[in-house]
Write a structure and sequence with these properties.
With 698 residues, the protein is an alpha+beta fold. It contains twelve helices and 41 strands. Strands 1-4-26-25-24-23 form a six-stranded antiparallel sheet. The radius of gyration is 26 Å and the shape is globular. Helix content is 22%, strand content 29%. A hairpin with a 5-residue loop joins strand 25 and strand 26. Helix 8 (185-201) packs antiparallel against helix 9.
Length: 698
């Protein structure tokens, strides 16, 4: 599956500075699929550009040199695949400044999508040089766009191959209109953003395109809908609450299996034992019913909250369609991320079930959309399968199985928790376990390929699939006292979205930014890996800091990073780096719950117990809450408002006042571990293994 042009570990290590950002050894074996042809074209163009910038080219030869550079950029765009990378080479500079791309101190640890690599270079051109680019390709691009007629794929090819030309801006605008007419508003916004990028680079295009782009931007803004349901009433109630009232527990599934009870765990693992419990997920249907997904069942609670839930076995439903899936059996893992993430679409539900780690040869990971009965008069209370996709087939609502389209094969993939829910599609991270990388030992070392997969929300049909990176799951592997390699198995963090792009943290030593609409790769950044025995972050998704950056705390690292969603490639820009600030050590921190710029609300593990802390990462200023009891531990699930923090522990729930330096208002002991909180509803709904608690606020 992987071409010989993949980058080897040795080359990555050679590119890493041991003292980069003061982090020391990265010890990061992440591998990328690099386009050999595009990398060659870009390297040749970079050498020519350095000579031009240095004045080493005679005046009579300068036009020919520019044309050679422009041709190389064009060839790079046309020769590269959709999921291939380019590795910047920070060694080619002139007087301490990059002569090729906008300076970025992260170049030694980043990879760029081929399109972004070219656009970074074009961002260094002045107006006269951009005019030379247009003179070289403008007419050719216009001719190709005219020959494309109504072929959408050829429009996209023109847009990608001839950036900063009239034809590219026009093709992107047409694609925006085409997506708009089809109701694909998130895709329309992506094409509009690309049209704006072409106009920004080609300054002579502004007078022609800016009014038309402004009209489209206004129309799309009016149609914007939140990507996740909110419940202002519940948050308002939480913000005013002084403590907890009554708590009512309801069992939704069988109790915790005997082999997972505390008595069966070693002393070393007991501290993290509650993190190894089956972590259910839950969501609210439009009718007010609560659906909880455990390891092998769905529990549907009545809208009023009274009465026993109805249990549905997805495995049984899918078996009737010819899709044989094994139960997602919980594994002992240092993984606090909920293993299941059901998605509500009105009164319908999208779920992922199954795992590639089952013994059965027919086991597969399946994504399915289920429709629940909305009337008590319906005879069959079981949900109907609207569609299902897994392995090499797609099943529609009539049970008809058809092969997936060319280029799609999910038979070796395991869909991960935390997909991104867009307006008309779902974007999942999927893993191809034990996949061979460019080196023979990669399979033995536990390498896995991380893919991004988009499915149409209405039909379940695959839209696109992009390979992100190859890496070892979890912290750096170690050798135990018996000489056996030890790995920790971490699920990826949930995808986070910003301005039409998604950030993935697969916990394989890398963070990747890609377009939400069609998966175009933007950039990736390698993190430092930690050893198994070192403290790590408790797996939360990147936190939006509100200043155009995310606070990224990968569980396989002992560092945190402030990464920019959209670095400014303009030469001289103070926002050109991928990092908005230097990496910070984990120290006593374990989970970051919220952030405003460099100021974060976090959980810290101190010698006298765990506590909430309010920390300014820039200055180090900090205020702390009272510590929990020595044998009580926070989870990473919380609800945060401007005035309150509600956080789960391995005993129950705790409520803190943000306006009074994190004063502990109240805590409630539920007699069991809380692994999740469900947003929405009048009160607090907490999840545990086999139990849901409804907690009143007062």
């Amino acid at each position: 599956m992987f071409a010989a042009c993949c980058v080897l570990l040795a080359s990555l290590v050679a590119r890493q500075e041991p003292t980069t950002f003061g982090e020391g050894e990265l010890d990061n074996p992440t591998e990328f699929e690099v386009s050999a042809s595009a990398a060659g074209f870009l390297a040749d163009a970079d050498r020519q550009l350095v000579e031009l910038r240095a004045g080493s080219v005679a005046d009579a030869d300068r036009e020919r040199a520019w044309n050679t550079i422009f041709d190389a950029w064009h060839y790079a765009l046309e020769s590269a695949g959709a999921d291939e990378w380019n590795l910047p080479d920070p060694s080619r500079d002139l007087s301490g400044k990059s002569a090729v791309v906008a300076p970025d101190v992260t170049d030694s640890r980043r990879a760029d999508g081929i399109e972004r690599a070219v656009l970074r270079r074009m961002g260094t051109l002045d107006r006269r040089e951009l005019a030379a680019w247009d003179a070289r390709f403008g007419a050719r691009a216009t001719e190709e766009l005219a020959r494309a007629v109504d072929d959408v794929a050829r429009w996209a090819a023109v847009e990608r191959s001839y950036p900063a030309t009239d034809a590219a801006a026009r093709a992107a605008t047409r694609l925006c209109d085409h997506a708009f007419a089809a109701g694909r508003f998130e895709l329309a916004r992506a094409w509009l953003s690309r049209a704006e990028r072409h106009v920004e680079l080609g300054s002579d295009l502004r007078a022609t395109f800016e009014p038309a782009l402004a009209r489209r931007s206004t129309a799309l803004a009016a149609l914007a809908t939140p990507t996740a349901p909110t419940d202002d009433r519940a948050d308002e109630k939480l913000s005013r609450s002084r403590g907890f009232g009554r708590a009512r527990a309801q069992v939704y599934d069988r109790p915790l299996p005997t082999r997972w009870r505390d008595g069966d765990l070693s002393k070393e693992l007991r501290r993290d034992a509650w993190l190894t419990l089956p972590s259910p997920g839950a969501t609210w249907l439009a009718s007010g019913r609560l659906v909880v997904q455990s390891d092998d069942a769905l529990a549907v609670f009545p809208a009023g909250g009274d009465g026993a839930p109805e249990l549905v076995r997805p495995k049984t439903l899918l078996r009737g369609l010819g899709l044989n899936v094994e139960t997602r059996v919980p594994r002992l893992r240092h993984d606090p991320v909920p293993t299941l993430t059901p998605i509500a679409v009105g009164d319908e539900l999208v779920i992922a079930v199954g795992t590639r780690e089952a013994r059965s040869a027919t086991a597969r990971s399946v994504v399915a959309r289920l429709a629940f009965p909305t009337s008590v008069l319906e005879l069959d209370p079981a949900p109907a399968v609207r569609w299902a996709v897994g392995g090499t087939v797609h099943v529609d609502e009539r049970g008809r199985a058809t092969p997936l389209g060319a280029g799609f094969d999910f038979d070796e993939l395991e869909f991960q928790p935390g997909p991104a829910v867009l307006e008309t599609e779902l974007v999942w991270l999927a893993r191809q376990a034990n996949a061979a990388g460019p080196r023979d030992e990669s399979r033995a070392r536990g390498s896995t390929v991380t893919w991004a997969v988009a499915l149409d929300l209405a039909t379940g049909r695959p839209l696109w699939q992009r390979r992100l990176a190859v890496g070892v799951i979890g912290p750096r592997e170690d050798v135990d006292r018996f000489g056996t390699r030890v790995f920790t198995d971490l699920a990826p963090a949930a995808l986070v979205a910003r301005d039409g792009r998604l950030f993935a943290s697969p916990h394989t030593g890398v963070g990747v930014l890609f377009d939400a609409a069609d998966g175009r790769l933007q950039w990736s950044f390698q993190s430092r890996r930690r050893r198994v025995e070192q403290p790590g972050w408790l797996g939360t998704s990147p936190i939006d800091a509100g200043d155009g950056s995310w606070i990224w705390t990968p569980s396989d690292s002992d560092r945190g990073y402030c990464v920019r969603a959209a670095p400014d490639d303009t030469v001289g820009s103070t926002r050109g780096s991928l990092l908005a600030g230097p990496p910070f050590e984990i120290g006593s921190l374990r989970t970051i719950l919220a952030a405003v710029g460099p100021r974060v609300l976090a959980i810290a593990a101190e010698p006298d117990g765990e506590r909430l802390v309010d920390v300014d990462l820039a200055s180090g200023a900090r205020s702390d809450s009272f510590a929990l009891a020595q044998d009580e531990h926070f989870g990473n699930q919380a609800r945060v408002t401007a005035t309150r923090v509600l956080v789960c522990t391995d005993r129950g729930l705790a409520l803190f006042d943000r306006e009074r330096e994190l004063f502990l208002l109240d805590r409630i002991d539920l007699g069991a571990t809380v692994t999740g909180l469900v947003r929405g509803g009048d009160g607090i709904v907490a999840l545990g293994a086999g139990t849901v608690w409804r907690v009143e606020l007062r």
